[in-house]
Amino acid sequence: MFKRLPPTRAHGHVDENRVNRAESLANTPSISGSVPRLFSRFSTPVQPVGQRGTPPHTYKLHTVDRGHTTATPAQETHTGPTTLEHHRDTRKGRIEALRRIVFADHYKRDSPMNGMSLQREQDGGGGTVTKQREVPRFRCGTYVLTAEFDDGDEFYREKALKELRETPDVVQQALKDIRAMVKGEPDFNLPDDDEFFYKFLRPCKWHPKSAFELIKRFYKFRLNNPRYCDSLLPSSETKLLSSEILIPLPDRTAQGCRILLINAGKKWNPKVISLDEIFRAIMLSLDAAMAEPKTQIAGVHVILNMDGFSLSQVTYFTPSFAAMITEWVQRCLPCRLKGIHIVNQPFIFNMVFAIFKPFLMEKTRKRIHFHGTDRKSLTSYLGTKPLPTSFGGELVMPNEPLGDGLCDYFCCFEKDFEASNQWGYAKIAKR
Questions:
Q1: Where is the composition biased (Polar residues) (predicted)?
Q2: Residue 370: CB partners within 8 Å, gap ≥ 6?
Q3: What is the model's pTM?
Q4: Running along the chain, 431 residues long, what does each successive block of 10 average in pLDDT?
């Protein structure tokens, strides 16, 4: 049952309740290592966390070695009062306090795992060096979500070569060419970072001119649509992120694709959460997913679960909204969108699709699949392993609520989203 959430806040507003909850955190030894940055190769320290209260469900944070996972012995949790008054005077301090609430309601460090993921970087002299960094994961019962920042195994290397033309010579030349193009674009502020350009070059199969045009469209959309793009931070979208309308599934398809589940039916109350907020959270989630090299190579599938969708919800969809979101998906999104799967849709959903249909390109139409309640149809595209049992898959979703934990998982990367938001066209050069 959808739980009624607080009234809508203005975008950019920091959730004061989450900051205040940090007051009750206990003093415990900090987790060894660091939380990886989503948009940079540098890492951000993890704040100490502790155990609070006696909640009805449990969230856990571990670090995991993508190559060879090694569990360390269980550690005792020491609790005690703590205050964060020195953090509360500025917005930056509030964000720091927010980031310390790693998972809502309860934190239990019963079997932490410290590991590293390998990541390739340029050494400045044309060569490649390999660095290691620790990766967090979110666990709630049988649900285990890991942000994967490694380059993947031979499967992904073969896929990148076969589907994206990704060879050392092609990569080196594309990076050189796109840097030259960026320098010639006025009022354009971008990081001089290989990882940043990978995000746009891979969806364009390493064609630098196409990637440069994608970068321009991506940032012009952000510049021209402040309603959806300003202050695009986890702390600004806590209401949506904790509502379980949007859930990234933890396992990939056999082809290596990420899966994003959007529950746009009975879990969505338009009087509490607007369409704008759903779209902003989708942008936030795909931004995070596209920081993963594996996702850049393999792409993303989106599942729209329309179970419980009603006539009253239809009225919130307008042609202008449909035009905007299709422009973003088809022309501005730096992502290999492999499929949009609509499940459990009632007949009245045809009214919504009729609004979107005039704006869809032929390529996009071919990637939209209507499955209804036909689970075999859905699993024929995505397989059974990554899908929840309710969709005909093998993934047993926990009975405990996921929302607060997922929200706080995103909030761990607040500074990285802040850093990402600074890039693009100068606002005085709106075009």
A1: 70-82
A2: 342, 345
A3: 0.75
A4: 41 50 35 37 36 38 37 35 37 45 34 37 47 73 91 96 97 97 91 96 98 97 95 95 97 98 97 96 95 97 98 96 97 97 97 97 97 98 98 95 94 89 78 48
Pairing verdict, β 117-122 and 143-146: unpaired
Rounded distance, CA 280 to CA 227, Å? 9
Rounded Cα–Cα distance for residues 304 and 282 (Å) = 12
Q: Decide if 194 is inside a domain.
A: no
DSSP classification of residue 367? T
Q: What is the DSSP letter of 252?
A: P
Residue 139 lies in a domain: no
395 within some domain: yes
CATH of the domain at 259: 3.40.525.10
Q: Rg of the chain's alpha carbons, rounded to an integer?
A: 21
| 42 within 8 A of 115, measured Cβ to Cβ | no
CB-CB contact of 96 with 85 (8 Å): no
What's the total number of domains in the chain? 1
DSSP 178-243: HHHHHHTSTTEE----HHHHHHHHTTTTT-HHHHHHHHHHHHHHHHH-HHHHTT--GGGSHHHHTT
Identify the residue whose tokens are 């952000």: 222
Containing domain of residue 330, as a range? 227-425
Q: Are 116 and 109 in contact (CB under 8 A)?
A: no
Secondary structure element (H or E) that encloses residue 247, with its range = strand 246-248
Query: Tokens representing 189?
Result: 């502020």
Q: Is residue 143 part of a domain?
A: no
